[in-house]
Amino acid sequence: MRAAAAAQATRPHPEHCQLGGAQGCTAPAEIKVADSWGDAAWGCAAHVEEAVINVRSVFIANEELGGLAAYVNR
User: Fold this and answer.
1) pLDDT of residue 18
2) What phi-psi label fits residue 72: left (phi over 0), alpha (psi between -120 and 50 degrees) or beta?
3) How far is the C-alpha of 57 from the C-alpha of 39, rounded, in Å?
4) Domain ranges in the chain?
5) What string of H, E and C letters represents the secondary structure of 12-56?
6) Residues 53/28, Cβ–Cβ less than 8 Å
7) How many angstroms separate the CA atoms of 38 and 40, rounded?
8) How far is CA 28 from the centre of its chain?
9) Dist. CA 10–CA 7, nearest whole Å
10) Which of 22, 31, 33, 65 would you label with 59, given CA atoms 20 to 30 Å apart?
């Protein structure tokens, strides 16, 4: 989690966690997660960890890996 937060620290992101649900979360947004449906959100370390553990299709977003774009546009 710390490595992901460090890698994404310079990316533009919201100030607060977007994964707090109805109660909200005032913790800093540190890590971007995404799912296979194309939804993405920024979250604090605690909520990102919860999502990665409990939601099957969630993963830590990483632009450096290139995603499917290189495969689709070959």
Assistant:
1) 96
2) alpha
3) 10
4) 2-72
5) CCCCECCCCHHHCCCCECCEEEEECCCCEEEECHHHHHHHHHHCC
6) no
7) 6
8) 13
9) 7
10) 22
Name the residue with tokens 């971007």.
32
CB 13 within 8 A of CB 32: yes
Q: Exposed e or buried b for every residue in 28-51, given b needs 16+ CB within 10 A?
A: ebbbbbbeeeeeebbbbbebbeeb
User: Mind listing the pLDDT tens digit for each residue in 38-71?
Assistant: 899 999 999 999 999 999 889 888 776 666 666 7
Identity of the amino acid at 42: W
pTM for the model: 0.80
